[in-house]
Structures are given as structure tokens and as C-alpha cells.
Write a structure and sequence with these properties.
The protein is built from five helices and no strands. By secondary structure, it is mainly alpha-helical.
């Protein structure tokens, strides 16, 4: 993994966490909204440890009721 990918993962995760908290959602609540059985995956995404699939990003956008521009504005 190169530095650019790592930087992107960290920024994306931080942005997801920021929006989730602004909407007063917990990690388990967001996980339930997108159909994850394991809320810890949300923590891994928010901490930049995993890169979510395009489909997962789409599900997060829908669950948070935001646009892709809002999510990727970092």
C-alpha cells in the first residue's frame, strides 16, 4: 500500500466518523442501517485500517442521507 492510499483511507474514515457523530449515530446503529452484522467493521473503516468497497461507500452515503460530494469533501 502506498502513502496516497493510506492517506485517503484515513481521510475517508475520519469524514465518515465526523458525519456519523454529527447525525448522533453510534457505530452499531450505522452498521445496522447498512446491513452489517459486525459493527466493528465501521470502526476499522473510520480508523483507516480497511478500505471500504464502492458498494459499502454507497450504503454509507444512503444511511447517512448525504451526497457523495459531502462524504468526499476532505
Amino acid at each position: 500500500m502506498d502513502l496516497e492510499e493510506l492517506k485517503f483511507r484515513k481521510l475517508l474514515g475520519a469524514r465518515i466518523q465526523e458525519i456519523r457523530k454529527d447525525k448522533n449515530l453510534t457505530q452499531p446503529e450505522l452498521a445496522a442501517l447498512i446491513g452489517f452484522k459486525d459493527y466493528q467493521t465501521i470502526g476499522r473503516i473510520e480508523n483507516g485500517r480497511v478500505t471500504p468497497s464502492v458498494y459499502t461507500i454507497h450504503q454509507i452515503i444512503k444511511a447517512l442521507e448525504i451526497t457523495s460530494n459531502e462524504l468526499l469533501n476532505f
